[in-house]
Design goal:
The complex is a heterodimer of chains A (431) and B (361). Chain A is of the alpha/beta class and 431 residues long. Chain A has helices at residues 75-84, 103-116, 139-145, 160-173, 184-187, 196-201, 208-225, 237-248, 261-264, 286-297, 333-342, 349-354, 358-364; strands spanning 3-13, 18-27, 30-35, 44-47, 52-55, 57-62, 87-92, 120-123, 149-151, 176-179, 192-193, 205-206, 229-231, 254-259, 303-305, 379-389, 408-418, 421-425, 428-429. Chain A is built from 13 helices and 19 strands. In chain A, the strands form four sheets. In chain A, strands 1, 2, 3, 4, 5, 16, 17, 18 and 19 form a nine-stranded mixed β-sheet that branches. The longest helix of chain A is centred in the middle third of the chain and has 18 residues, at 208-225. Chain B has 361 residues and is of the alpha/beta class. Chain B has a domain at 179-328: Rossmann fold (3-Layer(aba) Sandwich). In chain B, the strands form three sheets. In chain B, strands 9-8-7-10-11 form a five-stranded parallel β-sheet. Chain B has a four-stranded parallel β-sheet with strand order 4-3-5-6, with helices on both faces. The longest helix of chain B is centred in the C-terminal third of the chain and has 20 residues, at 329-348. Chain B starts with a strand and ends in a 13-residue tail after the last helix. The relative contact order of chain B is 0.14. The chains are: A alpha/beta (431), B alpha/beta (361). Chains A and B meet through α6 of A and α6 of B.
Chain lengths: 431, 361
């Protein structure tokens, strides 16, 4: 029996349309009361005056590298990074070693997450065995062992016939399929967004059409099969246009996300061969960013993610074409959203929070991302006035690579609470 | 045009515009070193470059160009004369990708400045798993003054430059840049026209623009010289948004050549055919190869240039390659020696005492 009272904070709980000064009383890991001037006696009290209180953030696309590449990240260090970013639930991608194409890997991740008792970890299984794009994984068994969705993220199922069958099979099993949309024949050796910057740097480009075509293909097949399909990390004008059109046609089985870097940074971050800015999808040019922001405004986009992808430094200290794709985003995602969407007044703060809480929860079918009485007490508390400069040395993640390094962001996590327990407080993990 | 050989004595006529010495004939090779070096210093006039590493033409200012060319023209007069400017300094030519002409040119240029040189050919340490950065930092620890880098990947010299005390010279990186090639090409053009820039001149670059590091540097330099830039190639060989360099694309070579003052042909590699950029070298040559007939579409005083190696009868018809009066291909090579000597001297032997900033990784 433990209790916690969070007093005087500005509570934004988009699912319950709350935005105002309120107290939250937490008992035994659940939200027990929300309201003004609560009088309950609590074991612990947090004075959140001047601070923002939200449902714990949910990031539905992260890479924690365990099992296999514990030198890059572990479930433990990844969880620390999540807590430092106010993220209380994550969905891990299956491109571990071995690939999460069987129940053993899923069960290992769930067991380890339970032992760690830091955040909620929801693993995904792969669509195809060893993510080879050819043979379906034993998807029913993956689901039964606890996989929340299937995806071949990192690569994409290139063969349309295999993808169609995977969707049909996923619908049979009753599991969501998440697609990393990329057309290999158009990407070829591409290493950054194809455009003026790639031309200046003499780097092979990834045309926007590589993503557009794959998004379109996935939408067609989702409509054809009726499978529950989620489109990962969309970043192009064409992707947003096709998703919007599908939703207007009434496709209720299709959802889509944007990774926060894709509304924040342009491909100019790659100038000087900055491998910290190398990722897939690549950082795009301004017109794509504008389209992405429009897609956020009109809710074509349902959720924000990070695609948190840690690497060891030698993998980034390479010629740009050889460097690894991806960077660590968990510790900067909220501030990125606040700094690049809310401060320039593209959207209101509750909408930004919705896309990081109730938005992903709905996609995943989780009863999380809100602060209703009785809900899991996953709560994050932010200082919106705090300006800070991103410093790789201070990352909790093992990955020290980010295009945000050196950038000034606004908004910082003060407390992260999981199941009613304070797990992160003023820059420190609480164990 | 620049020199004639009479027995063992070099007779040099200097066609240089605005150079301090306009003597018609000078016996340079007999000059004692002190006089020769004093002579070069007269051309240098105490100036230094604004950069410590040459990675991109973007770094090169108009003042840098003036200095480099003033000195390069004088070095050219001295041909293979051995100066002691860089004595005591060393240079490593790190050619991670095979090279014949550029590596030998850099090596000779350094030796004619009395530098000790060592060569790295191929990438044995890289293939053993060592990172470029570790390899370059190892070379840097020999306390060399200059590291010349050629790599098949774009950006290796830029990355190296941040982490070495030595000056890094980009000798060609991936599809990005090959700045000394552009500098020698610029010198060749300016000297042909006898002008301080290329205002009002039209330069047509034809060939595999997308995969060309030569184009990457040349287009940046031509812009600095205010030339009109035309590019001619199938769209498969044109990189995205290239017009932002100030270049205009032509799908028809004949139209591109009309009124051209410089015709610059780039090599088209045979493997591009296999990758679907062109159907065949045969078709490419028919559509874009520079023939006598096509060259005649250009202005009367136009010159033909090529960075080499020329694939005869594909990029440029055989008869035009070296022998033709309009061909400046061998003059480019000669200017390459002079420009590289100027660069290596100015980088290694700074007069202003400024020291490069770098961090170890």
């Amino acid at each position: 029996m433990s209790s916690l009272l969070i007093k005087n904070g500005r509570v934004i709980d988009p699912r319950n349309h709350r935005d105002g000064a309120m107290d939250i009383f937490v008992q035994d890991g659940k939200v027990a009361a929300v309201g003004k001037k609560l009088k309950q006696a609590a074991d612990q009290v947090i004075d959140a005056r001047g601070l923002l209180v939200t449902p714990g953030l949910i990031d539905m696309q992260v890479h924690f590298r365990e099992p296999g590449r514990e030198d890059k990240e572990t479930l433990e260090t990844g969880s620390y990074a999540a807590l430092a970013g106010g993220v209380t639930s994550v969905v891990t991608m299956p491109n571990t070693n071995p690939v999460a194409d069987n129940q053993t890997v899923i069960e290992f991740i769930l067991k380890r997450a339970k032992e760690l008792d830091l955040i909620h970890i929801f693993p995904t299984g792969s669509i195809t065995k060893a993510q080879d794009g050819a043979m379906l994984s034993e998807i029913n068994e993956l689901k039964n062992s606890g996989a929340i969705a299937i995806t071949d993220d990192g690569v994409d199922v290139q063969n349309e016939g295999v993808l169609k069958r995977a969707m049909e099979y996923a619908r049979t099993v009753g599991i969501m399929l998440m697609s990393h949309c990329e057309t290999d024949e158009l990407t070829e050796e591409g290493t950054m967004h194809e455009g003026w910057v790639s031309t200046q740097l003499g780097l092979p480009g990834i045309p926007a059409a590589s993503e557009d075509l794959a998004v379109y293909k996935n939408i067609l097949l989702a409509e054809e099969t009726g499978a529950r399909v989620h489109l990962l990390h969309n970043s192009t004008i064409g992707a947003i246009r096709e998703i919007r059109a599908a939703k207007r046609r009434g496709a209720k089985n299709i959802t889509a996300e944007v990774s926060v870097q894709h509304f924040a940074l342009t491909d100019e971050e790659c100038l000087g061969y900055n491998t910290n800015a190398k990722m897939y999808p690549p950082l795009r040019s301004q017109e794509h960013i504008d389209a992405v922001i429009k897609g956020i405004k009109d809710d074509t986009i349902d959720a924000f993610t990070t695609d948190h992808a840690p690497h060891i430094e030698p993998d980034k200290l390479k010629p740009f074409v050889d460097a690894a794709f991806g960077f660590v985003g968990l510790e900067t995602s909220f501030a990125t959203m606040y700094t690049y969407l809310v401060k320039p007044k593209h959207i209101e703060l509750p909408k930004g929070i919705a896309k990081m809480t109730v938005g992903p929860a709905k996609i995943l079918g989780l009863d999380k991302g809100h602060l209703s009485v009785g809900a899991d007490a996953d709560i994050s508390i932010f200082d919106l006035k705090k300006e800070w400069t991103v410093d790789a040395k201070k990352f909790f993640s093992k990955g020290k690579n980010s295009p945000f390094i050196g950038k000034k962001l606004t908004g910082k996590v003060v407390y992260t609470i999981v199941d009613g327990k304070i797990k992160f407080e003023n820059g420190k993990i609480v164990r | 045009m620049y020199h004639a050989v009479k027995g063992q004595v070099l007779i040099i006529r200097i066609p240089v515009v605005g150079s301090p010495s306009m003597n018609a004939e000078v016996h340079l090779h007999k000059k004692p070193p002190s006089e020769a070096e004093h002579d070069l210093n007269q051309f240098r006039k105490g100036r230094d470059l604004t950069f410590f590493d040459l990675v991109s033409i973007d770094q090169v200012t108009q003042k840098d160009l003036a200095l480099l060319y003033d000195v390069a023209r004088r070095f050219r007069d001295y041909k293979t004369y051995k100066f002691s400017f860089n004595k005591g300094y060393s240079q490593v030519n790190a050619f991670f990708e095979p090279s014949t002409r550029t590596s030998s040119s850099f090596d000779l240029a350094a030796k004619q400045l009395s530098m000790d040189t060592a060569g790295v050919a191929g990438n044995s340490s890289i293939s053993k798993g060592e990172s470029y950065l570790d390899t370059v930092e190892t070379i840097d620890a020999y306390n060399v003054r200059v590291i010349v880098i050629r790599s098949k990947e774009s950006g290796v010299p830029a990355m190296a430059a941040k982490h070495t005390q030595a000056s890094i010279v980009n000798a060609g990186d991936g599809w990005h840049e090959h700045p000394t090639q552009a500098l020698l090409d610029g010198l060749t053009m300016l000297d042909h026209f006898g002008t301080p820039d290329l205002k009002g001149k039209t330069v047509v670059v034809v060939g595999d623009i997308m995969h060309s590091r030569v184009f990457g540097s040349l287009v940046r330099l031509l812009r600095k010289f205010k030339a009109e830039i035309r590019i001619a190639a199938p769209l498969t060989m044109i990189p995205k948004d290239v017009e932002k360099f100030g270049a205009t694309w032509y799908g028809n070579i004949e139209e591109a050549l009309k009124g051209a003052d410089v015709v610059y042909a780039l090599r088209v590699q045979s493997e591009r055919g296999a990758n679907g950029f062109i159907p065949s070298l045969r078709e490419y040559s028919k559509m874009f190869g520079i023939s006598r007939k096509r060259l005649d579409l250009a202005n009367e005083n136009a010159i033909l240039m090529h960075p080499g190696p020329v694939i005869r009868d594909i990029d440029v018809h055989s008869a035009l390659a070296a022998a033709d009066e309009q061909s400046h291909i061998l003059r480019q090579v000669e200017n390459g020696m002079a420009v590289r000597k100027a660069l290596l001297w100015l980088l290694a032997d700074r007069l202003d005492g400024k020291v490069k900033k770098y961090t170890r990784k």
